[in-house]
Amino acid sequence: MRFVAKTLYGLEKVLSEELISLGAGEVQIANRAVLFEGDMSLLYRVNYAARTALSVLLVIADFRIRSKDDLYKGGSKINWDRYMDPDDTFSIVPVINSPHFGHTGYPGLILKDSVADYFRNKTGRRPSVDNSNPRVLINLHISNDTVTISLDSSVVPLFKRGYRQDQSVAPLNEVLAAGIILLSGWKVSATLIDPMCGSGTIPIEAGLIACRIPPGKFRQFYGFERWKNFDEDLYEKIKYDCNSLIIRSAVKIFGSDISEQTIQVAKANVARAGLNDVIFIETSDFKDLRSTDDIGYVFLNPPYGQRIQPEEIDNLYSMIGTTLKHNFPGNTAWLITSNKESLKHIGLKPKEKHILFNGALECVLLKYEMYQGTKKQGRL
Predict the structure, then answer these.
(1) DSSP string covering 336-378, please?
(2) Model pLDDT, residue 378
(3) By the 8 A CB rule, do 284 and 309 touch?
(4) Where does residue 229 rank: exposed (0-12), middle (13-18), buried (19+ CB within 10 A)?
(5) Is the pLDDT at 214 greater than 80, yes or no?
(6) pTM summary value
(7) In the prediction, which pLDDT does 339 show?
(8) pLDDT-above-70 percentage for the chain
(9) By mean pLDDT, which of 27-31, 93-97, 297-301 is the weakest?
(10) Coil, strand, or helix at residue 318?
């Protein structure tokens, strides 16, 4: 079987490494996606255990078109009764970039008719469209003259883990948080600190990684559970295998925030994730914190400045740079922001730079190395 795992821009390589570790074959990196091959057990496993995938698609057909009519003909050749029954509901999500179609919604209507006519010609009945809660979600991707038709096995995006029912203002996407941690190369032997933790997403994702807890453990539903060929016994075995790897780690993870209200939200989310014995949350101002580990990691997702005055945000970024330099010697800091102007006030030279997206915002992820004493001494 051929699959497509979607992800956020900049996390394609991280996801490809995850997929390989989960047993995927023929892995190929694409734009905001990774292509791979495997069987149904792998499909279940990736949905349940991959930390940087947004959704997983099962490719059921691909072909080329020269006109709109070719899309209908191609859709009619698919054996739709392998995947659904005429009593099922379905919906189509079109992703279109083709000179054959001026309106992105029109190809979805063509494929809808193709599916409906397939069943009407074969059984005399046709499935209904349900855009709010379909039993089968079909993904239609057209790039120039190439058509790819897939079934969405996730339906609910995989960043919706299920542990975060409470959230602060502008929370970090869970997939992005996990991706940043995996990009950083953090090992559980090093203390991890998030001094502006908001609703606790980075500490929680780090705790899940450290304890080998699959991110799907808190989920209640996947799209593949509604498929005609869903194998419940196989899925239960995959969950059992993944959950059997869970450990209680001796890792030290700390989260803090200046807002007491925000900290209460973070604590509730940590408890919901079952990580109270791994993650320690407290109310604190970043400038008052000191590192307790000279090889520790600091992760920062400071305000980007959308709701703060320019002078205040510049002062905040200046404080971040000063605090990192003086209070966290020997540590490695990773900071994500969309505010490139205020970065000048940090006063530190980044060692690495990655472009990522937090929602629609293009962000930069920067790595800073805090040396013990002078830079020269830090390398001895």
Answers:
(1) EES-TTGGGGG----SEEEEEEETTEEEEEEEEE--SSSHHHH
(2) 34
(3) no
(4) exposed
(5) yes
(6) 0.91
(7) 87
(8) 95
(9) 93-97
(10) helix
If DSSP codes are grouped into helix, strand and coil, which group holds residue 267? Answer: helix
Q: Is the pLDDT of residue 310 over 80?
A: no
Q: Which of 192, 91, 108, 186 is nearest to 142 (CA)?
A: 108
pLDDT value for 242: 97
Count the Cβ atoms, other than its own, within 10 Å of residue 189: 10
CA–CA–CA angle 191, 195, 199 (5° rounding): 105
Residue 374: pLDDT over 50: no
Residue 168 resides in a domain? no
- For residue 160, pLDDT beyond 80: yes
Residue 166 resides in a domain: no
On whether residue 37 sits in a domain, the answer given is yes
- Greatest Cα pair distance, the chain, in angstroms, is 80
The reported pLDDT for the residue numbered 380 is: 26
Q: What is the DSSP letter of 374?
A: S
Using an 8 Å Cβ cutoff, are 174 and 205 in contact? yes
**Is residue 134 domain-shared with residue 186, that is, in the same domain?**
no
Q: Residue 165 falls within a domain, yes or no? A: no
CA–CA distances in Å: residue 171 to residues 27, 111, 165, 266: 31, 37, 11, 11
CATH no. for residue 102? 3.30.2130.30
Q: How many domains does the chain have?
A: 2
Residue 109 CB coordination number (10 Å): 13
Q: How many residues does the chain have?
A: 380
* Statement to judge: residues 84 and 122 lie in one domain: yes
Closest among 132, 140, 135 to 114, alpha carbons compared: 140
